[in-house]
Amino acid sequence: MKIYTKTGDKGQTGLIGGRVAKDDIRVEVYGTVDELNSFIGKAMTELDEATFADILNDLHAIQHELFDCGGDLANVMKEPQFKLTEAPITVLEERIDVLVDEAPPLEKFILPGGSPAAATLHIARTITRRAERQMVSLVATTEGVNDVVLRYLNRLSDYFFAAARVVNFRAGVEDIEYARGGKVFHTKKGE
């Protein structure tokens, strides 16, 4: 089987139900989602199973969900059948709550970094934010888009932030606080 088709040599690419220019915002979004998925794969290679089994399970599920997002974004049929539903958003919210409770209290902004896996998760977070911004443009200018993808990406970036902090915590690596910032996150009164 050949992996090259030569059908995109003139700057067009095939979608489910049509063709568009390779620089179409729809292609930009699912290309960014693909880039994100690659960095998740990299993060997974930096995590050991014994310490990070739960996060590895999360990331594995997220990789599949991102493929669903890509398929939904590539679908331009008149009555598309979308794969991504609200259920993964609920799972992300539950996992974020668990991870936030495990990490040390946060009072200041932190810089991306720490352990290699946490740094990669921060890269994934920023790529997710870029995909989210692109998705906002797509939803604003295009009909027939699965807007659940936008909500999913919004939650996903929060998940990566929480996961990066827990990865550092479990690895015994402190988050790097932004030195020129003051206390911006406050605990409840009495704490």
Automatic annotation (TrEMBL):
<comment type="pathway">
    <text>Cofactor biosynthesis; adenosylcobalamin biosynthesis; adenosylcobalamin from cob(II)yrinate a,c-diamide: step 2/7.</text>
</comment>
<keyword id="KW-0169">Cobalamin biosynthesis</keyword>
<dbReference type="InterPro" id="IPR016030">
    <property type="entry name" value="CblAdoTrfase-like"/>
</dbReference>
<dbReference type="InterPro" id="IPR029499">
    <property type="entry name" value="PduO-typ"/>
</dbReference>
<dbReference type="GO" id="GO:0009236">
    <property type="term" value="P:cobalamin biosynthetic process"/>
</dbReference>
<dbReference type="GO" id="GO:0008817">
    <property type="term" value="F:corrinoid adenosyltransferase activity"/>
</dbReference>
<dbReference type="Pfam" id="PF01923">
    <property type="entry name" value="Cob_adeno_trans"/>
</dbReference>
<dbReference type="GO" id="GO:0005524">
    <property type="term" value="F:ATP binding"/>
</dbReference>
<comment type="subunit">
    <text>Homotrimer.</text>
</comment>
<keyword id="KW-0547">Nucleotide-binding</keyword>
<keyword id="KW-0067">ATP-binding</keyword>
<protein>
    <recommendedName>
        <fullName>Corrinoid adenosyltransferase</fullName>
        <ecNumber>2.5.1.17</ecNumber>
    </recommendedName>
</protein>
<dbReference type="InterPro" id="IPR036451">
    <property type="entry name" value="CblAdoTrfase-like_sf"/>
</dbReference>
<feature type="domain" description="Cobalamin adenosyltransferase-like">
    <location>
        <begin position="3"/>
        <end position="167"/>
    </location>
</feature>
<keyword id="KW-0808">Transferase</keyword>
<comment type="similarity">
    <text>Belongs to the Cob(I)alamin adenosyltransferase family.</text>
</comment>
